[in-house]
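Batch manifest, entry 17 of 40.
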Amino acid sequence: MKRTAVFLIPLIAGLLFTTCLHQDMVEGNVAGHIELDVTFEDYMAGENATMIMAYVWEGATWEAAAAPDSLGLPTVGEVQNKMFGINTTAEIHGEYSVTFNLPEGKYYVSVFETFNMNYTSGDTALQLVGYYNANVDTTYNSDTEPSPLNLSEANDEYDIMLVAISKDCAGVPGGNAVLDCAGVCNGTANLDVCGLCVEPGNECEAIVSGAIQLTVDFNDYETQSDAAMIMAYLWTGTTWDTATLIEGPSGWAMFPLAPPGTFDGPTTVTFQEVAEGTYFVGVFETTGMAYDSPLATVGYYNQTVAEEFNSPDTPTGLTTNEITMHAGH
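Output type: structure tokens
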């Protein structure tokens, strides 16, 4: 399920507060500004990120500015940060800008995904979007080192930009390499019909025939107030993506329960003789017998879910005629 992140609070905080660690800034000794424009192209932030921050470091060299802390993160030369007004829970498109007002100095600019506003070693969402580097053609975005900006009264304005494009698992911006189910970049493993991550040629066979007996062990399971029955349905197909519902009594089974209410203990239904094939089972609260009236999902039988054998959205093919799943645990 797509995560939900509240970004309004950090956004408001970012508009109200700006970290300013440079003493000259406190005294108001501003020589000029650096305006940073970031163009995001189909950019997707990491699942733990709640904001995207721009940071400025100062130092005679990048090595000096980025002197690492005990965990290897550059914090010594950081002088200021600004937050972009971006929702990190959706794909990011368009141009966003921040401006840094700074005293004379030699500065380096970068953009990171973060969970916190300040650049901290304990930030679990910390992920580089890019360092501004004038020597990188087209994108001005380096994943290794920024180029310096020398701010002075004689050179008091920098308008800079970089382009941010999501990288694939191989580190290629805009690339299409993806992790397979085994976590291998551009790997060939896939989930088979039994829900197992295997290489091609090692897939399981989920083939059954005859009567299929399904037991659901309810544990303090409370239905919706307008549920009229609890139904099990049967699908058939070589994969779940291509499976079709078996219509009518052959593919429907009603539990001998009388919702609405709370139920405990095992209850069994049986699908009568089915031809040899691959089958999938789901259980639902409904207002009628047909599948077009489900109110809530009790669960899909999934043999890869330890102990419960119940998935809220994905079934696995049946490998035996007698199956048990749990609901309400």
